[in-house]
Write a structure and sequence with these properties.
With 451 residues, the chain is an alpha/beta fold. Helices cover 28% and strands 23% of the residues. An eight-stranded mixed beta sheet has the order 5-6-4-14-15-16-13-19. A hairpin with a 2-residue loop joins strand 9 and strand 10. The longest helix is centred in the first third of the chain and has 18 residues. The two termini are 37 Å apart. 52% of the residues are buried.
């Protein structure tokens, strides 16, 4: 059965396909990459291409966490102007990746469309286009009649939309595992079920990674560990104001054509796959599972939580109990691997509401059937921009994390920049807004859009 048919689908079905035989722990490499999401897998691939011996370690399975659980949009549209150059660079890479990596990744150039529900929202889209028109040259505003012509299945009355025909989509877990497999063919050792406990530093320089199975010596470490990044960096004196939100996503059975383009509007996000099934989710609406850890770095996040409070639902339950148990019974050093492959429950009520919204919004979706729902933990930063930097405090350390729910499409470009930094090149100018120290220096800005 085709990988783009209804089954298999992420998070779990595709992950099982990677399946490597158990291997002995390597003792040394030029670079150790922590994290088997798309950032880590792409970094490993390009690092090996730069001639650096590389080991990729993942505490669970490659693509098992947020890189296998996201929407699959590959967009430049309506990104923060500070992040946009990186997104444009990545979009140039995606069309050639399937041939380069030698595996299907589901890439299709379908475009992206953001439909405005109000005149104020339409004005926000128009302002973004005006600010970015020199670089986002393919983005265009659509009037109400133009939108109706492009999307005849749309029932909602909208004043217009923002449309970027050159954007696209890919299958998240397929793309991530394709990078990992291609990295392995270049000689990268990919170690599943091998969590990082600590980054070892000697004389102000990276000297290795302590894993749950032993020490791997190296001169460079790439921390692409998603929501675990702050735990690994804190012992080095590097404070990363990073938090997590839970996002629920659903897969539908195949439907008639609803939207060729990746769609956002009227509170939902939708990506229709090649077989007609749809990935659907509530747009800018997430759950915050309260725990003691929720209050870490709260001063950075509180203003935006208040600003976008309607987009968050605070939940009190099992995560708090898990956090208390971990703090009382698990040594601090072991906490990065304490909850391997945690079950992240979907918000079934939110999933049902999203399905109903799709039914009401699109002609042809009356018979919508949700096949399954899942959730992922999105690691967010106060300004909703990632960190992609080599902090001056620790030589040989590269941080690639905090992608705030819109990192999937950036993956190939991030991997290339990581390889460049590891090779000793100066950071590219487009990385300046993504510096690690912007929070300590107070030079970060408010998020471009809701967290």
């Amino acid at each position: 059965m085709s990988a783009l048919s209804l089954f298999p689908h992420a998070p779990d079905d595709v992950v099982a396909q990677l399946g490597a035989e158990p291997v002995a722990l390597p003792r040394q490499a030029d670079v150790v990459v922590i994290g088997g999401g798309i950032m880590g897998a792409a970094s490993a691939y390009y690092l090996a291409g730069a001639g650096l011996s590389t080991i990729l370690i993942e505490r669970d399975k490659v693509s098992s966490q947020q890189s296998g659980r996201n929407w699959g949009f590959v967009r430049t549209q309506y990104r923060d102007p500070l992040e946009l150059p990186l997104a444009i660079e990545a979009l140039r890479i995606w069309p050639e990746l399937e041939q380069e990596l030698g595996q299907p990744i589901g890439w299709r150039r379908t475009g992206c469309i953001f439909v405005a529900e109000t005149d104020a929202e339409l004005q926000s889209f128009a302002h973004w286009q005006d600010v970015t028109r020199d670089i986002a040259v393919d983005a265009r505003m659509l009037s109400r009649p133009q939108l109706a012509s492009l999307m005849p299945s749309l029932r909602g009355q909208a004043p217009g939309a923002l449309h970027t025909p050159s954007d696209g989509q890919a299958e998240p877990a397929l793309a991530t595992t394709a990078f990992a497999r291609a990295a392995m063919r270049r000689g990268v050792r990919v170690l599943d079920d091998c969590g990082a406990l600590a980054i070892e530093v000697s004389g102000g320089r990276v000297s290795g990674v302590v894993t749950e199975h032993g020490l791997i010596r190296c001169g460079t470490v790439v921390c692409a560990a998603g929501l675990q990044s702050h735990r690994l960096l804190a012992p080095l004196g590097l404070v990363l104001p990073q938090q997590g939100v839970r996002s629920t996503v659903s897969l539908t059975a195949p439907l008639p054509s609803l939207s060729d383009a990746c769609f956002c509007g009227f509170g939902i996000g939708l990506r229709q796959r090649a077989d007609g099934s749809c990935i659907i989710a509530a747009d800018s609406s997430s759950d915050i599972d309260l725990s003691l850890d929720s209050f870490r770095a709260s001063r950075f996040f509180l203003p935006e939580l208040l600003r976008y409070r309607s987009g968050f639902a605070f939940r009190l339950g099992r995560p708090l109990l898990d956090d208390l148990h971990e703090r009382l019974s698990v040594p601090k050093r072991e906490r990065p691997v304490a909850r391997r492959r945690p079950r992240i429950p979907a918000n079934e009520a939110r999933a049902a509401r999203t399905g109903e919204s799709v039914r009401q919004l699109f002609a042809g979706a009356d018979g919508i059937e949700i096949v399954k729902s899942w959730a992922g933990q999105i690691d967010v930063m106060p300004d909703a921009l990632p960190v992609l930097d080599s902090p001056a405090e620790i030589a040989g350390l590269i941080v690639a994390t905090g992608f705030s729910g819109h990192g999937f499409g950036l993956g190939p470009a991030v991997g290339r920049h990581v390889a460049s930094l590891a090779s000793g090149d100066a950071p590219a100018a487009i990385l300046a807004p993504l510096r690690f120290d912007r929070f300590a220096r107070g030079t970060y800005s408010r998020p471009h859009a809701s967290l």
